[in-house]
Amino acid sequence: MSRLLFLLTLGAIGVQLSGCVIFREPVENPQSPTQHPAPAYSGTPTSPYPAPPAAAEPAPAPTPPPPANVPPPATRQFHLGPAATALVAQAHRQAAGGDPQLAISTIERALRIEPDNPLLWLELGDIHETAGHFDQAAGMGHKALQLATGDPRAQSASWHLIADSLKARGRNGEAAEAQRRADELAPQ
Amino acid sequence: LKIWRYLLAIVVLCGIALAVYVVHLDRIVTTQFEGRRWTLPAQVYAAPLELYTGEDLSAPDLEHELQRLQYRRVDHVDKPGSYSRQGDRFQVSLRAARFADESRPATLLNIASNGAGISGLTDITGKDVAIARLEPLLIGSIFPIHGEDRIVVTPEQVPPMLPAALKAVEDRNFDTHFGVDPLGVLRALWVDARSGQFEQGGSTLTQQLVKNYFLDSRRTAGRKIREAIMAMLLEVHFSKTDIMTAYINEIQLGQDGDRAIRGFGLASQFYFGKPLVELDVAQVATLVAVARGPSYYDPRRHPDRALKRRNVVLGLMAEQKIISSADAQAAQGRPLGVMGRGSGGYYPAYLDLVRRTLRRDYREEDLTESGLSVFTNLDPRTQELAEKILDKELTRLDHLHKIKGAPLEGSVVVTAPQSGDVTAVIGGREAGFDGFNRALDARRPIGSLVKPFVYLAAIETGRYNPATIIQDVPVDIKIPGAPDWQPENFEHDINGPIPMVRGLARSLNLATINVGMDIGLDTVRHSLQRFGIEEDPPRIPSLLLGTFELTPLDVAQLYTGIANGGFKTNLRAVRAVLGADGKALKAFNLDVAPVAQPDAVFAVQMMMEQVMQRGTGTPAQSILPTGVVVAGKSGTSSDLRDSWFAGFSGNAVAVVWVGYDDDRVTGLTGSQGALGVWDRLLTAIGPTSVSSVMPESLHPVSIDFRTGYEPSASCAPDPVTVYVPLSFTPPPAPPGCTVFGTAPKSGTAGGAKPEPTLLDRAGKWLQGITH
């Protein structure tokens, strides 16, 4: 759950950042980045990821990552589009209601909309991890890690998921190494 | 007196015999009719179209999708299955639907669209809706071989007009008779005699039901008696409503190859593509007409007969005051409005893949009888585009090349790169024909499609990168017990030392073989195996040129792994299976496993982009939208028998095979045949650029495409960007112009050390031609 909280917070901060690559829409005057963090998820239907700033006119599509031939910027910040945000909230309700399979279907639905978003792969990995599908969780963690290039927070969360899945399978040495990488990348 | 006793005894015996017979029939009627009811073939659905703000879906495309689901355009939306449109604003009355993960009641949705896509979704109260979906298109069912296919409807799903029309036309005393209707027989005889044609039959609906349900189609007196008795028994045990519902679900209404179209629910989908309850008067009357003789009144094969009979039915409906004369006349003026068979909705090659997937987990009877709902990843839009484009391109190629014999064939598989969802499968040129499924069953040599895996394996050894100088020089490979293998490049050219990126982009055989032999055949085989092909390629050197055979689906599995950044995900046609009760039985979850080094895969992806920029994929540039970056590889088998192209954009992986079924020479390379299908298909889908992000362990460097050196201003360089380890920098160009042909013999700078024997051979050869 702690990673979840962490993701919520980073999602909240993500919206505040103006130079965000994944979020192409102009954001005027980024407010203090220390503004209230997103409310922690507690089984209520509130979205775990903050909604993007209200756009005047056409709401943005989930923005594709930069073209491959452009080197990634030193840092970037992923966040979810409105549709994926709603689905993630729904998946959390389903998981909290004791139906991980339904939650998995819902996150997969979101992934069809934003397949390149590491936050969704982390969500999916999380549910698999909780449901005891550790191999799947590890796969999701590695996939998230690949997509998270340039976003240290998402990278850290990916290593964290990988570490958890390794630990669950008794591979403690590798788990410790993965955890070390997660900690290195974690924001202070 | 004695004779009377005998007679009495005979009568009693006959009576007992009859009673026994009746009891026997009664048992058949009650057990079969009540116990089994209908076997329910599994219903198979396409992926539902998701609707969300920001989605790249224009107003015309949205309308097209609504029409695919046979939504009616009206001025003011009323019943589910209708929509209104004012400019770019839609109001849609969505039908109740079952999805893999939930059931949704019928609901009203407002959709605002603009040039860029969907700009807003609201519900009936004006509240924003984050995401909604259209119901999934029914794409078919899994029915037994030579079996009955049907969609069972409940009385609520039947328009009230239908039973009324059936009674008016087939059985006016249905509500009062006891299973048989002697008066009805007489009246029918009278009507038919007077009009001189066969307008009314004498059988009650109950008798027709019995005939369809319990009996074969022989016409004998004994069978007639049996039918009459069973009809009466049915009336004893069941209500009129039950019998009417049974009739509506049982009766045969068409034949589609091996598939018997049973029941009005399926017939409605089969002829009109929408739920029974949404049919209008004319359509209901058409089905009632067809019920009289599904082959004689087949509305596709005999539209004139069907139309005439439909109008008779409408006349009878007006006569019985079911509809007004004015309505009947208006309906009589309408065309039949039956969907063409080619107008989509039937995808045998995809269903074949679904069936094979499910057979691993389910018994045949479960699939054909127990009413499962199967939710698949088929994208009807992609599927239809692929069908059309393949057929059009093959027709063009046939005209261009005019080779005697059967026309060219082809197949296509399309998947989603990150999830392995199979979105389209085309098994042959005649996509609606349930025949040989080339996408799944045609195993052909893959030719140069293997090369990305050779170079991937090479990069993963750590000894190669896309800028490494490799040797495109002749090889002579000793094979025990066989003549030496001395392959050549396609153009019979020899290019000497070249950067690896050129070897892949130009699909140079010699360069690939030299690299492959250097890293070892097993390394290459392993590179293929881990991406999930079913059979290991043979351990022979010609493996490096793709002489082993794979199906288009196998190739899609391999290339999806590359598109997915080195993650293997099993291709999925099926998302989930629900039982007849709506409970989830099985989910086919997304599963990804890292099988290759991500930075090596990225480097290969970027080289495959160069295939499109400078190599065998360049003809696609004139077709693909400008600015969209895609990656791919051509494949051609020996003597130009098989023409392949496989590759991906950010949102789709597509594999195309073109060739002859009898393995004749096509005269087509991958670029000349399959590429023309591939690029047009990707363009029609609306490609996004390859979205891979450069790993932190790599950096881009610019090299001369011809030599691999740093581009030198003095030598008309052809700079290309490749992605190499951070520690690597390209060698500076030697003084002067150093393109092959004038290059010094020591062309090994900056790369892996080639085998000296090869270099020596090249040197000798070089001396030979420079003289």
Explain what the structure shows.
The complex is a heterodimer of chains A (188) and B (771). Chain A is built from 7 helices and no strands. Chain A is an all-alpha fold. Chain A starts with a helix and ends with a helix. Mean pLDDT of chain A is 73; it is low at 1-71. With 771 residues, chain B is α+β, with helices and mostly antiparallel strands. Helices cover 38% and strands 18% of the residues of chain B. In chain B, the strands form 11 sheets. In chain B, strands 11-1-15-25-26 form a 5-stranded mixed sheet. Chain B has a 5-stranded mixed sheet with strand order 3-4-5-8-9, with helices on one face. In chain B, helix 3 (161-170) crosses helix 9, helix 3 (161-170) crosses helix 10 (303-319) and helix 10 (303-319) runs antiparallel to helix 11 (325-332). The chains are: A mainly alpha (188), B alpha+beta (771). The interface between A and B is large, with 43 and 52 residues.
What are its keywords?
heterodimer, A: 188 residues, mainly alpha, globular, disordered N terminus, B: 771 residues, alpha+beta, five-stranded mixed β-sheet, 32 strands, elongated, disordered C terminus
CA distance, first residue to last residue of chain A: 19 Å
How much of the sequence of chain B is in beta strands?
A: 15-25%
Ranges of chain A where pLDDT stays below 50 over 5 or more residues in a row are 1-71
What is the global morphology of chain B?
elongated
Q: What overall geometry of chain A do the principal axes of the alpha carbons give?
A: globular
Give the uncertain stretches of chain B in residue-range form. Answer: 741-771
- CA gyration radius of chain A, whole angstroms: 16 Å
Count the E strands of chain A.
0
Could you report the average pLDDT of chain B, rounded to the nearest whole number?
88
